[in-house]
Amino acid sequence: MKSIFIASSFHDYDRALVNDVGGVPEALGLRPVNGHDMGGEPLEESVKPRIEEGDGLIALFTQAPNG
């Protein structure tokens, strides 16, 4: 199955958006992949192979809520 990497922040306030967006590739027969389970490794080095192995990338840029 082809995969698509979903790049996003790891903040709790983005979790629902990431889950919703992840449903779009699934509906198209793609497997969404992210870096949320990397176990504290440096982000750049640990996530890079997942991005390179994927068939595409969706990048989510969000703004922190006020408050």
List keywords for this structure.
alpha/beta, 3 strands, 67 residues, flat
What does this structure look like?
It is a single chain. This protein is of the alpha/beta class. It has one domain (3-59). It is built from 2 helices and 3 strands. The protein has helices at residues 15-27, 43-53, and strands at residues 3-7, 31-33, 57-59. Helix 1 links the parallel strand 1 (3-7) and strand 2. The longest helix has 13 residues, at 15-27. It starts with a strand and ends in an 8-residue tail after the last strand. The mean pLDDT is 82.
Mean pLDDT: 82
Oligomer: single chain
Q: How much strand content do the residues show?
A: 15-25%
How is the largest sheet built, in terms of strand order? 2-1-3
How many helical stretches? Answer: 2
Number of structural domains: 1
Question: N-to-C terminal Cα separation, in Å?
Answer: 41 Å
Largest sheet: 3 strands, parallel
Q: Nearest-angstrom radius of gyration?
A: 12 Å
Given helix and strand content, the structural type is: alpha/beta
Q: How are helices and strands ordered from N to C? A: EHEHE
General form: flat
Could you estimate the helical fraction of the residues in percent? 25-40%
In short:
The chain is α/β, with parallel strands linked by helices and 67 residues long. The chain has helices at 15-27, 43-53; strands spanning 3-7, 31-33, 57-59.
